[in-house]
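Would you mind writing out a protein's amino acid sequence and the numbers that encode its backbone to help me picture the idea?
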Amino acid sequence: MKLQVHSAQGSGTGREVELPENIFGVEPNEHAVYLAVKAYLAAQRQGTHKAKERGEIAGSTKKLHKQKGTGGSRKGDIKNPLFRSGGRVFGPRPRTYGLKLNKKVRQLARASAFSAKATAGSIKVVEDLKFDAPKTKDYVSFLNALGANEGKVLLITAEHDQFVYRSGRNLPNNAIVSAGDVNTYDVMKAGTVIVAEGAIAKLKEQFA
């Protein structure tokens, strides 16, 4: 697949670039995408939840009253889960929610996401952006010239550029990541994916 290369100002350059077929031209595998997105969202969970159970509650262990003959139900001690401030039954404990995915599944998921966006015509290629200083106004002008000022936008750069990142980090529905950090969730979430020329070479290395 060939796409026109846009300049850093958002205008056309008259050049075209060939997108690698093993990344942007595969048959999308929906299940691999599902697994990758599920693993990403699971990894965002801290898993630090904790509730005290009966043996961890501070309180007397004395039996409240004898087992029989009172007309009331058997209760045990004051830490009984039936009472207010009692221990919780099978409460949450700290745990890791992360899911393990094989490398080939992760690569297939990313390639499926890129291919789905390419088929939908949602990918634009631009020259590598270079800003002298963080300037959100210049970044917004770039998006407007590129026609990517509506919906969620993902910009994939070759390397992490602090000035480019800081120029767009405060914009809503906008994300800027390097080619080494982009994941399936980022691509699927975006309505428009802008790929820098240098990022294409970095993606080729990852899928080699």
